[in-house]
Amino acid sequence: MQALIIKQGLVLMAAGMAIVFVFLYVMVLVMRLTAMVVPRFNHLLPDVAPKAPPRPAAAAPAPPDAAIAVAIAAAVARTR
């Protein structure tokens, strides 16, 4: 009884693997055929050239340390 179940399991496994192999083989054939056919019709829908990204604006120059110190001193003097 157990040998029959094992034999059926092996047959089912082989059938499943064969079906997957045939499906993958057909898929590869269809992809190769598509790769040969599509370039012939590329002139109907050409790819749009990508736009160049805009250049970022130049960052403002950092103020010198003395100007920062004066601004801090003025803020402190105003709060007292």
Distance between the termini: 98 Å
The number of helices is: 2
Overall body shape:
elongated
Helical content (DSSP H or I, runs of 4+): 55-70%
Q: Mean pLDDT score, rounded? A: 88
Describe the structure in your own words.
With 80 residues, the chain is mainly α. The chain has a domain at 1-45. The chain is 64% helix and 0% strand. It contains two helices and no strands. The model has no long low-confidence stretch (mean pLDDT 88).
List the main descriptive attributes of the protein structure presented here:
80 residues, mainly alpha
Summarize the structure.
With 80 residues, the chain is mainly alpha-helical. It has 2 helices and no strands.
Helix-strand layout with pairing:
Blueprint: H1 2-37, H2 65-79
